[in-house]
């Protein structure tokens, strides 16, 4: 089976919840907006049973250009990681 597309996800969720596809799309959009806002302000956003998005600060480090082998400086930056919940790991085993 190929990966699930957004339209396929909306279709399945609409069928399982009895909501319209438009309502499901709106709900998911609002949840994503909330997740981004919470990660930006509080550093994490938890989706119970699935995992959490976490803001992580990476230190500056030395690296290499893979094409030329030249040493380069990689600046410090902030990234978002998703940590999978234990329940989700156990569910797919």
Describe the SSE topology.
Elements: H1 6-17, H2 21-42, E1 44-47, E2 51-58, E3 61-64, E4 71-74, E5 77-84, H3 86-91
Antiparallel strand pairs: 1-2, 2-5, 3-4
Number of strands: 5
The CATH class name of the largest domain reads: Few Secondary Structures
CATH architecture type of the largest domain: Irregular
- Any low-confidence stretches, pLDDT <50, length ≥5? none
> Beta-strand percentage?
25-35%
Query: How is the main sheet built?
Result: 3 strands, antiparallel
Mean pLDDT: 94
CATH topology of the largest domain: HU Protein, Chain A
Structural domains: how many: 2
- The CATH homologous superfamily of the largest domain is termed IHF-like DNA-binding proteins
Distance between the termini: 18 Å
The value of Rg in angstroms is 19 Å
Helix content: 40-55%
Description of the structure:
With 93 residues, the chain is an alpha+beta fold. The protein folds into two domains: 1-42; 43-93, IHF-like DNA-binding proteins (HU Protein, Chain A). It is built from three helices and five strands; from the N terminus they run ααβββββα. The model has no long low-confidence stretch (mean pLDDT 94). One of its GO terms (molecular function) is DNA binding. It is found in: Virion. Pfam families: Bac_DNA_binding (PF00216).
The gist of it:
This protein is an alpha+beta fold and 93 residues long. Helix content is 43%, strand content 30%.
């Amino acid at each position: 089976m190929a990966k699930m597309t957004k339209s396929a996800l909306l279709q399945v969720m609409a069928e399982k919840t009895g909501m319209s596809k438009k309502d499901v799309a709106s709900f998911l959009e609002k949840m994503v907006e909330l997740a981004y806002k919470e990660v930006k302000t509080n550093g994490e956003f938890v989706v119970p049973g699935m995992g959490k998005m976490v803001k992580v600060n990476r230190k500056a480090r030395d690296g290499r250009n893979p094409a030329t082998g030249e040493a380069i400086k990689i600046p410090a930056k902030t990234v978002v990681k998703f940590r999978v919940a234990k329940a989700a790991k156990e569910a797919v085993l």
